[in-house]
C-alpha cells in the first residue's frame, strides 16, 4: 500500500514522490477515486452527425456506446447486454438503428431501450418473469456536453459539467468555438505508450520549460519558428477552473494582425471576432498572448500551433484534442484527434490537417520526442530508488512560498483565473493538487441496478 | 486491395496529387523479370530503412510521391469501410517526408538517439502490371521489429502495403505507397520510423 497522507501532502507542497508515475497501488486508487468520479471526454458531436451514428469509447475499463438516436439526442450506453453481460456493440464506429447482442439475440434501439427478447413468453413467462418494459442499457451515470464536446462521469453526485470546467470554458472557446458552427473532429489516431497518464496531462497544462530543449529539432528543420527559449519565456501560463494552459507572446499588432501572424485567413478572423467576447479577443489582440497547449483535469489536453507545412514562409495553425487514457500505472493509450473550425475554407482544413500530422499525433515530430521522454521517466519510476526521490516541482516558488513571477494584473491579461509570464510549474501543481483532492476522498458505493425484477428502478415514460 | 474503384490515395485528405495508375490483370509469374526487379527493389529498400539511411531512401521516392497510412478502425461486417474517414497516421508528400528525414539528421531528434534497432521483414510479395510499361504495382506484407534500449520490451507493427513503382531516368522509384496497418491501436510509442 501507499503512504497516502505522506504522498498527497508531499504532492501538495510541490514535492513529487517519483513513484507516483509507476505504482500499481497509486493506480488502483486513481481508478476508483479519480476516474470513478471525474468528467471524462468521450467524443465530439461532429463524430456522430447523423441519426444512428455511434462511436464506442472507454472510460478506463468501461465501454460506452456514444450514439445519436433517431430524434437526434445523444446517449452514452454502457456497452453490456442486460442478460449475460456481452458487449452489444463490438465495432468502434458505425451507424445502427439497433444493437443486437450476438450471444442470445437481445436487441436494443439506439436510444438504449430493449426491443427484442427472444422467447420472452416461453422462457421467462412474459412480464411476470422478466419485466421487459422500460428496460434499457445502463446509461452513463452523468452525461454533458460543452461546445459539442461530450463528457461522461461515473459519479452520480458529480457537479455539473459546466461547474467542472469552470472558467476554463473561456479558453476552451479558442480551440472549439472559432465560428458559430464550432469544430469538426477527425480521428482519433490511437496508440499505446509505456508511460504514466499524468505526465502528458501535466506537460500540456503548463510545461513551457521543455519546449526549447525537447523540441530543438523542429526549429532546426524550419517546421516551427516559435519555440526558441526566449519566446517561450515571454509567454504566459494561465489556470482557470479545472484547467490551464500555455501561450506564446506574439509580436506587436492588433487582434487581426496577430491572428494573421499565426496563419488564419481573414474570413475566419471575422467569424472569431463575431463569436468571442471582448475579453477573449483582448487576450490576443491587446495582451499579445496566443494559446498553445492546455489540459483539463484529469486527462484531456489541447494543442494549437502554427508550423510551416510547405516550402514557404507561410504558417498554418492546427488544433489537436487528445486524451491520455490510462491502461495501467505504466501504460497509456493516447487518443489524438485533429480538430478544425467547421466553417473554415476547405483548403485551410487540408493544410491545417497536414500541419497536425507533421507536428502531433502518432507520427508528429513534436510528439515523437515528448513520448520518448515520458516512457523513459515512467520506466525509471518503478524502482525502490524512485521511492526515495522527491522530484522538485516547485518552479516559480521560493522556498518560503513567495512567487518568482507575480500574477498578471487584469490590464495585462484579460482572461479569468491566474496568469503569469515565464517558466513555472504552477499549472502542474494545480493539476496534481486536484489529483490529490480526488485521491483522498473515498467514492461512495454506487447503488446496484437489478434487471427485470421489481427491484429495478424503472424509468417512467421510457 | 484488388477490385477497388479508386485508390486509398484518392480518398485521402492530402492525396489529390497522387499518381492514379492501378494494377491490371493477374499476378505476374514469380519468374517474370518485372516481378524479380520489384521484389529486389523492396528488399533493397528494407535494408535502407533498417539502417535508417533516410537520405538515400528519399532519393528512391518520386517527386510526386504520396505516402499514406490510414487509421484503421473496427467496423461491423458490411459497413463498407475500415479506415477512419479523413484521418491517417501518414498522409505525406515529398516535402513533408523530407522534413521528417531532415529532423532525424539533426542532433536533437531524441526519440532516435540512441537509435532503435529495426528489422523490416518483407514478405508475400506479388507484382502486377499496369496499363503503362513504366509502372508496376507491388503488394507486400511488412513486419517491423523495433527494439529500443536494453530494458524495454520490443514492439512490432504488422501491415500490408500496396506500392506503385515508376521507371524514371536513373531507375525505379516509389510513386505511391499505401500502408494498411493491421491494428486499430498501434502498439508502438510513436511512428518515428517508415514502413
**Class computed from helices, strands and strand pairing of chain B:** alpha+beta
Query: In whole angstroms, how far apart are the ends of chain B?
Result: 18 Å
Main sheet strand line-up of chain A: 12-18-17-16-15-14-13-20
Helix content of chain A: 25-40%
Shape of chain B: globular
Characterize the main sheet of chain A.
8 strands, antiparallel
The first-level CATH class name of chain B: Alpha Beta
Proportion of residues in β-strands of chain B: 35-45%
Which helices and strands occur, and which strands form pairs?
The complex is a heterodimer of chains A (about 450) and B (about 200).
Chain A: H1 4-12, E1 15-17, H2 24-33, E2 40-44, E3 53-59, E4 62-68, E5 74-78, E6 93-95, E7 98-100, E8 107-109, E9 114-116, H3 120-124, E10 142-146, E11 149-153, H4 161-165, H5 169-176, E12 183-193, H6 197-206, H7 211-214, H8 216-220, H9 229-234, E13 236-240, E14 243-249, H10 255-261, H11 266-275, H12 278-285, E15 289-296, E16 300-305, E17 318-328, E18 331-341, H13 346-359, H14 365-380, E19 390-392, E20 418-421, H15 426-439
Antiparallel strand pairs in A: 1-19, 2-11, 3-4, 3-6, 4-5, 7-8, 8-9, 10-11, 12-18, 13-14, 13-20, 14-15, 15-16, 16-17, 17-18
Helix pairs in contact in A: 1-15, 6-15, 10-12
Chain B: H1 8-11, H2 33-51, H3 54-59, E1 61-72, E2 83-92, H4 94-105, E3 117-129, E4 135-147, E5 155-168, E6 171-181
Parallel strand pairs in B: 1-6
Antiparallel strand pairs in B: 1-2, 3-4, 4-5, 5-6
Amino acid at each position: 500500500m501507499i503512504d497516502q497522507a505522506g504522498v498527497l501532502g508531499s504532492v501538495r507542497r510541490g514535492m513529487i514522490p517519483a513513484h507516483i508515475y509507476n505504482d500499481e497501488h497509486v493506480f488502483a486508487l486513481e481508478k476508483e477515486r479519480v476516474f470513478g468520479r471525474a468528467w471524462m471526454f468521450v467524443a465530439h458531436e461532429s463524430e456522430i452527425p447523423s441519426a444512428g451514428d455511434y462511436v464506442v469509447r472507454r472510460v478506463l475499463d468501461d465501454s460506452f456506446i456514444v450514439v445519436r438516436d433517431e430524434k437526434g439526442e445523444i446517449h452514452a450506453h454502457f456497452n453490456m447486454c442486460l442478460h449475460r453481460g456481452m458487449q452489444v456493440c463490438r465495432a468502434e464506429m458505425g451507424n445502427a438503428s439497433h444493437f443486437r447482442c450476438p450471444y442470445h439475440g437481445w436487441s436494443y434501439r439506439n436510444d438504449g431501450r430493449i426491443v427484442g427478447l427472444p422467447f420472452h413468453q416461453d422462457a421467462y413467462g412474459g412480464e411476470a418473469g422478466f419485466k421487459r418494459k422500460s428496460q434499457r442499457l445502463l446509461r452513463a451515470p452523468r452525461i454533458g456536453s460543452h461546445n459539442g464536446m461530450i463528457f461522461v462521469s461515473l459519479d452520480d453526485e458529480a457537479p455539473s459539467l459546466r461547474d467542472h470546467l469552470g472558467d476554463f470554458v473561456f479558453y476552451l472557446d479558442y480551440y472549439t468555438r472559432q465560428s458559430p458552427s464550432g469544430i469538426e473532429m477527425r480521428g482519433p489516431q490511437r496508440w499505446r505508450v509505456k508511460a504514466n497518464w499524468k505526465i502528458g496531462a501535466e506537460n500540456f497544462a503548463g510545461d513551457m520549460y521543455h519546449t526549447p530543449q525537447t523540441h530543438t529539432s523542429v526549429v532546426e528543420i524550419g517546421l516551427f519558428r516559435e519555440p526558441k527559449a526566449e519566446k517561450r519565456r515571454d509567454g504566459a501560463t494561465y489556470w482557470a477552473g479545472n484547467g490551464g494552459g500555455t501561450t506564446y507572446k506574439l509580436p506587436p499588432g492588433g487582434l487581426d494582425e496577430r491572428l494573421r501572424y499565426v496563419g488564419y485567413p481573414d474570413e475566419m478572423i471575422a467569424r472569431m471576432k463575431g463569436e468571442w467576447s471582448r475579453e477573449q479577443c483582448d487576450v490576443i489582440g491587446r495582451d499579445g498572448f496566443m494559446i498553445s497547449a492546455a489540459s483539463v483535469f484529469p486527462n484531456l489536453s489541447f494543442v494549437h500551433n502554427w508550423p510551416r507545412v510547405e516550402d514557404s514562409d507561410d504558417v498554418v495553425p492546427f488544433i489537436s484534442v487528445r486524451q491520455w487514457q490510462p491502461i495501467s500505472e505504466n501504460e497509456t493509450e493516447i487518443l489524438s484527434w485533429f480538430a478544425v473550425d467547421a466553417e473554415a475554407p476547405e483548403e485551410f482544413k487540408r493544410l491545417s490537417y497536414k500541419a497536425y500530422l507533421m507536428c502531433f499525433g502518432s507520427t508528429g515530430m513534436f510528439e515523437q520526442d515528448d513520448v520518448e521522454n515520458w516512457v523513459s521517466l515512467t520506466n525509471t519510476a518503478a524502482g525502490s530508488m524512485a521511492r526515495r526521490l522527491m522530484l522538485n516541482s516547485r518552479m516559480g516558488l521560493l522556498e518560503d512560498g513567495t512567487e518568482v513571477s507575480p500574477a498578471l494584473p487584469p490590464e495585462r491579461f484579460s482572461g479569468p483565473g491566474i496568469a503569469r509570464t515565464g517558466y513555472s510549474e504552477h499549472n502542474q501543481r494545480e493539476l496534481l493538487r486536484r489529483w490529490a483532492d480526488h485521491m483522498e476522498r473515498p467514492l461512495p458505493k454506487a447503488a446496484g441496478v437489478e434487471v427485470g425484477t421489481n427491484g429495478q428502478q424503472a424509468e417512467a415514460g421510457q | 486491395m484488388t477490385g477497388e474503384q479508386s485508390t486509398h490515395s484518392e480518398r485521402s485528405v492530402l492525396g489529390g496529387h497522387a499518381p492514379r495508375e492501378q494494377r491490371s490483370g493477374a499476378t505476374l509469374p514469380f519468374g517474370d523479370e518485372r516481378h524479380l526487379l520489384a521484389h529486389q527493389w523492396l528488399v533493397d529498400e528494407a535494408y535502407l530503412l533498417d539502417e535508417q539511411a533516410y537520405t538515400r531512401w528519399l532519393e528512391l521516392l518520386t517527386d510526386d510521391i504520396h505516402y499514406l497510412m490510414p487509421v484503421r478502425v473496427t467496423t461491423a461486417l458490411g459497413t463498407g469501410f475500415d479506415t477512419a474517414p479523413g484521418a491517417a497516421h501518414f498522409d505525406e508528400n515529398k516535402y513533408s517526408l523530407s522534413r521528417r528525414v531532415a529532423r532525424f539528421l539533426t542532433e536533437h531528434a531524441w526519440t532516435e538517439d540512441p537509435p532503435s534497432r529495426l528489422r523490416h521483414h518483407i514478405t508475400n510479395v506479388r507484382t502486377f502490371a499496369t496499363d503503362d510499361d513504366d509502372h508496376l504495382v507491388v503488394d507486400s506484407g511488412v513486419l517491423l521489429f523495433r527494439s529500443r534500449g536494453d530494458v524495454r520490451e520490443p514492439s512490432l507493427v504488422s501491415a500490408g502495403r500496396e506500392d506503385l513503382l515508376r521507371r524514371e531516368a536513373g531507375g525505379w522509384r516509389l510513386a505511391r505507397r499505401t500502408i494498411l496497418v493491421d491494428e486499430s491501436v498501434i502498439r508502438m510509442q510513436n511512428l518515428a520510423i517508415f514502413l
